[in-house]
Fold:
Amino acid sequence: MPLQATAAYSINRELREPGDPRYRYFETRNKLYLIAEAGAADTYGQTAPFTVRTVAFGSIPVVATLRLAQRRTAADLPVPFDVVTYDEGWPEPLKPAGWVTAHRYYDAQLQDEIDLVIETVRIDGVDLRLRPGCRTATHATLDLVGKGWFRGDPNDPVDEDDPGASGHYAAGSGGVITGTIDIPSFSSCRTPSGEDISPLLSSTVSGPGNEVVLTVGTPLCPLPPLGGYDARKHCDASNLPTTELTIPPQQF
Structure:
């Protein structure tokens, strides 16, 4: 299940304490939005449609078209995934024993809830013409990891500015986040005649451990590692999911 996302903005926070020998120890927080079509504000918060093929009753082919949709706020705005990454760097003479380079990115965790919307269903080739509103009865659970990496590792021949090329993830560059999604049962899945096929879809589509690959683009408005700045002054509103989105001042 490959998905696309973009980081709308990123915020850095310096973590070094006085006397820390590292020249860099940062926490970077990305806000990730699913996108169906780059540049179209009304597609933020959901994926493009994708197809799931399975069988019902052991032999009857079922083809469903789904979207994944992020949770929404009371104002009907998408709730972004919040992904935190850590990276640290050491002056070359002081780098830890066993390090290939003096700069390391740690694994990033993404655990969140999301909805699945079924748009169309064909059973044995027949379009059931679903009414709108067929979706998971509760939120599905995402459990993903963006693999860390050593910048400039000679044993990992990848452009150090493109961690996604080798399946890694770095907050400032994007990359790949992989893992699983647990899909709960569905509800409100009705045909034009009112027949509820939610139990059928739950038995064929729902289940734990479905593989997910999330490809994350470069942040649209990365923020510098400065203290006391206001994110709204650094981001072009046209780059955000909607001009109604408000980013509060960040004070670090």
Q: What stands out?
A: The CA atoms of residues 144 and 179 lie 4 Å apart. Confidence is low (pLDDT under 50) at residues 223-232, 237-252. The chain is about 5% helix and 45% strand.
